[in-house]
C-alpha cells in the first residue's frame, strides 16, 4: 500500500488533480472520488473511503477542521486533531491524495465575507440548536467541490455518510441547486452488532450509557417495521419507549420528507418513503441516529 500524497495548498490540490487525471482521461472513462472529512477518523469514515476506492480511479480525501461550522470556539479548539493517525487510516483505505490545509489556507483573510446558505433546510432539526452550523458546512463543502472538480470529461463523485442525514440531504440540494457537477453518493450507517450507530462521540459513553443508547436504534427499528407493514407509527408510544431509561433525554423524534426535511404530517400510516430522525442526550452526550422508512408494501 503506497502512502497518499499529502498536499497543503489549494493550488497544489488543483495541480495534483490535473496531473493525475490527465492520463486517466486519455485512457477513457476516468473518475475521481472525493471524501471530505474533519479528521478524527473512525470506522464510519473507513466505509466512505472504501466506497470511494471501489468506484473511482483517483481518490482524494480532505482533512480540515472547518471553523465556520462550529458555533462555539471552545468546541473548535478542543476538536481532536491527529493527522498522522488519520493518514494511517487513509493509507490503509488506499486513498491517493490527502488535502490537509491550514485554516489560513482555506480562509485567507479570515472568515469569508460571502458564504453559502443552507436555507430553511439548515434551520430545522439539528440547525435549530446550532444556528449557522449548516451554512458553515455548505460553505466549506462548496469550496472543496470547486477545488477538487477534475478536468472534463472525468466523472466526479463525493461521499457522505447517512449517519448525518440532515447534512447529506442539504449537500444533495447544494450540488443540485448550485449546479456543481458532482454526484453525491450516500454511504450507509455503520452500526455495532447491538445496533448503536458509529460516532466519534461513542467513545465518551460509559458502558451503562452505551447500553441505554441502544434505545435510539431500537425505536427506529420499531418505526421501520410499522411503516413496512403499513401500520400507524404511534409516535408518542415510541417516544415513551426511548424515555424509559432515565439516562436518555429525548430532544426530538421527527418523521420528515428525505428530500426537503419538511415534517410529514401523519394520519395513520406513512404516506411513502420517509426519514425518521432522533436526537437525544444519553448521560449528557448528544447522539443522533436515523433510518429510512419504507412506504407500505
Ligand atoms: O461531516 C463532516 O465531517 C463535515 O461536516 C464535512 C462534511 C467534512 C464538512 O466540514
**Topology-level CATH name of the largest domain:** Rossmann fold
Give the number of DSSP strands.
9
- What does the largest sheet look like? 6 strands, parallel
Shape: globular
Query: What is the gyration radius calculated from CA atoms?
Result: 20 Å
Q: What is the name of the CATH class of the largest domain?
A: Alpha Beta
The sequence of SSEs as H and E is EHEHEHHEHHHEHEHHEEE
| Number of contiguous helices | 10
Proportion of residues in β-strands: 15-25%
Look at the structure and name the CATH superfamily of the largest domain.
HUPs
Keywords: ATP-binding, Cytoplasm, Ligase, Nucleotide-binding, Pantothenate biosynthesis
GO molecular function: ATP binding; pantoate-beta-alanine ligase activity
Active site: 45
Main location: cytoplasm
How are the SSEs ordered, and which strands pair?
Elements: E1 5-7, H1 10-27, E2 31-37, H2 43-55, E3 58-63, H3 73-78, H4 83-92, E4 97-99, H5 103-106, H6 126-129, H7 133-148, E5 155-161, H8 165-177, E6 183-187, H9 207-228, H10 235-243, E7 248-256, E8 274-282, E9 285-293
Parallel strand pairs: 1-4, 2-3, 2-5, 3-4, 5-6
Antiparallel strand pairs: 7-8, 8-9
Helix pairs in contact: 7-8, 9-10
The structure holds pantoate (PAF).
Amino acid at each position: 500500500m503506497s502512502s497518499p500524497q499529502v498536499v497543503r495548498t489549494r493550488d497544489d490540490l488543483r495541480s495534483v488533480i490535473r496531473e493525475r487525471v490527465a492520463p486517466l482521461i486519455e485512457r477513457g472513462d476516468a473518475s475521481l472520488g472525493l471524501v471530505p472529512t474533519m479528521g478524527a477518523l473512525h470506522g464510519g469514515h473507513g466505509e466512505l473511503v472504501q466506497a470511494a476506492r471501489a468506484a473511482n480511479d483517483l481518490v482524494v480525501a480532505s482533512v480540515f477542521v472547518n471553523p465556520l461550522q462550529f458555533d462555539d470556539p471552545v468546541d473548535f479548539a478542543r476538536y481532536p486533531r491527529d493527522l498522522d493517525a488519520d493518514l494511517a487510516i487513509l493509507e490503509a483505505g488506499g486513498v491517493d491524495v490527502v488535502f490537509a490545509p491550514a485554516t489560513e489556507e482555506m480562509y485567507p483573510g479570515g472568515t469569508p465575507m460571502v458564504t453559502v446558505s443552507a436555507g430553511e433546510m439548515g434551520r430545522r432539526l439539528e440547525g435549530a440548536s446550532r444556528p449557522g452550523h449548516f451554512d458553515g458546512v455548505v460553505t466549506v463543502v462548496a469550496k472543496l467541490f470547486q477545488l477538487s472538480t477534475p478536468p472534463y470529461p472525468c466523472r466526479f463523485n463525493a461521499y457522505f455518510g447517512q449517519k448525518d442525514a440532515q447534512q447529506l440531504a442539504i449537500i444533495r440540494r447544494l450540488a443540485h441547486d448550485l449546479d456543481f457537477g458532482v454526484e453525491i453518493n450516500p454511504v450507509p450507517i455503520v452500526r455495532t452488532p447491538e445496533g448503536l450507530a458509529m460516532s466519534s462521540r461513542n467513545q465518551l459513553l460509559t458502558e451503562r450509557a452505551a447500553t441505554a443508547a441502544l434505545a435510539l436504534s431500537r425505536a427506529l427499528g420499531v418505526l421501520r417495521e410499522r411503516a413496512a407493514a403499513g401500520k400507524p407509527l404511534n409516535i408518542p408510544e415510541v417516544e415513551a419507549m426511548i424515555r424509559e431509561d432515565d439516562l436518555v433525554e429525548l430532544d426530538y423524534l421527527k418523521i420528515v420528507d428525505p428530500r426537503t426535511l419538511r415534517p410529514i404530517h401523519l394520519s395513520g400510516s406513512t404516506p411513502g418513503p420517509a426519514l425518521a430522525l432522533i436526537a437525544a442526550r444519553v448521560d449528557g452526550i448528544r447522539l443522533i441516529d436515523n433510518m429510512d422508512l419504507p412506504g407500505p408494501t
